[in-house]
UniProtKB/TrEMBL annotation:
<feature type="domain" description="Mandelate racemase/muconate lactonizing enzyme C-terminal">
    <location>
        <begin position="207"/>
        <end position="326"/>
    </location>
</feature>
<dbReference type="InterPro" id="IPR013342">
    <property type="entry name" value="Mandelate_racemase_C"/>
</dbReference>
<dbReference type="InterPro" id="IPR046945">
    <property type="entry name" value="RHMD-like"/>
</dbReference>
<dbReference type="Pfam" id="PF13378">
    <property type="entry name" value="MR_MLE_C"/>
</dbReference>
<dbReference type="InterPro" id="IPR029017">
    <property type="entry name" value="Enolase-like_N"/>
</dbReference>
<dbReference type="InterPro" id="IPR036849">
    <property type="entry name" value="Enolase-like_C_sf"/>
</dbReference>
<keyword id="KW-0460">Magnesium</keyword>
<dbReference type="GO" id="GO:0000287">
    <property type="term" value="F:magnesium ion binding"/>
</dbReference>
<keyword id="KW-0479">Metal-binding</keyword>
<dbReference type="GO" id="GO:0009063">
    <property type="term" value="P:amino acid catabolic process"/>
</dbReference>
<dbReference type="GO" id="GO:0016052">
    <property type="term" value="P:carbohydrate catabolic process"/>
</dbReference>
<dbReference type="InterPro" id="IPR013341">
    <property type="entry name" value="Mandelate_racemase_N_dom"/>
</dbReference>
<dbReference type="Pfam" id="PF02746">
    <property type="entry name" value="MR_MLE_N"/>
</dbReference>
<protein>
    <recommendedName>
        <fullName>Mandelate racemase/muconate lactonizing enzyme C-terminal domain-containing protein</fullName>
    </recommendedName>
</protein>
<dbReference type="InterPro" id="IPR018110">
    <property type="entry name" value="Mandel_Rmase/mucon_lact_enz_CS"/>
</dbReference>
<dbReference type="InterPro" id="IPR029065">
    <property type="entry name" value="Enolase_C-like"/>
</dbReference>
<dbReference type="GO" id="GO:0016836">
    <property type="term" value="F:hydro-lyase activity"/>
</dbReference>
Amino acid sequence: MSIITGYSTHDIRFPTSLSGDGTDAMNTDCNYSAAYVILNTTPNADSNAAASDTLKGFGMTFTIGKGNDIVIEAIKQLSDKLVGMPIESLFSDMGAMWELLTSDSQLRWIGPEKGVIHLATGAVANAVWDMYARSRNKPLWKLIVDMTPEEIVKCSSLKYLSDALTPEEAVQMLHERQSTKTEREKRALQEGLRAYSTSVGWMGYTTDKVQRLTKEALDLGFNHFKLKVGVSVDDDLARAKVIRDIIDDPQYQNKDKRVHAKTIEGKNAGPTGNVLMIDANQVWDVEEAIAYVKKLEQCKPWFIEEPTMPDDVLGHARIRKGLKDIGIGVATGEHCANRVLFKQLLQAGAIDVLQIDACRLAGVNECLAVMLLAAKFGVPVCPHAGGVGLCEYVVHLSMIDFISIAPTFDRNVVEWVDHLHEHFKYPVSVNSHGRYNAPLDKSCGYSIEMHQESIEKYTYPDGSYWKYEHPTIISKLQEGRRYV
């Protein structure tokens, strides 16, 4: 039987701060980065595969630069626990695999189940899931939707959730979806999953760039758009007007555009069926958030994302109540530390939209638990994907949600950013209607395998880009700059 023989880790950073990609009111200097792990195995005794063709598992978690090296160290500690283990023993009980990674009392102490150790758990757990899907010649989403309800629940990390969702309730919910699974899968494959563009509205973009990207996104079929806000009311209103003037103007609409009424109901859509969302990335206190967003009411956003500190459950509930009279919802989740915090947000009625992050949560197991919770409370899951590799990850999660879990998918949209996909062997894509295409390659696993040349070039600090190209670029950028 094949066993895990070892692993390699890689600190991979991309210089997105040079172009302003990823910039917002809180995060002004982002270098999209991957704390990356590759699990290695021995050849299966029953196969004739060469050593270079042995099964591998690829996983990563996302940061924006500094701290990537710290996450890498945590990934090493967790990966050590898997070395020597038969892979089929892991695959036979993926819930137990997750408990193995999260049950080391000394490692758990520095969380528990949050922060750096949780990010690392996500990378390692996802690498095992990637390996599992590859071993079965299925994309990750297909591996899971083909499971029985009981098998899915067994894989889900439901500990600490029983006051909101019991395993028995979860199994029952999934059984209720069984009769529509085949049709849902057919629809997802034919139509794709609705996406929204964040690429149009980063804080560091010029007005000209925002205008150009918004028109391009419309032409690609998008009808949901997100704008970063929080530095200045006047500046936010001006930038929102730039986007609104374009997305609400009939002359810029895609000739093949299809907008179903249910998908924009209650989202403050404009006359052409387009929706604007705004994102503050945690910059405000609670009452400040309410007052500030009320000044942006004329933008007609569907929701305000991350209006305050992400751990403040009651603060989000207060903001949601304070904005209800002007019809603006509240969304959060990309920095939500774990499933328990999501449970509390749902129990408190604090959010209208739940935004899971594929690797801030501790991998597939915890994401399944949170999607099941959201289904129980009837809140749409619109995953966060603003970062390297996250789009590749979340399309699998949203496929699972659409086919097997969500009671309805009318309001759900999946974040899309058009950055760095070329570095992945199985990159995601969107179709002409602004929808994610389903990953179909039987070898793609969780779609997170990077090209070896990308790993080598962008490894920090000794990859060829960082060692040779970056210093030259920085030097040129600083030529003639005046400091005052």
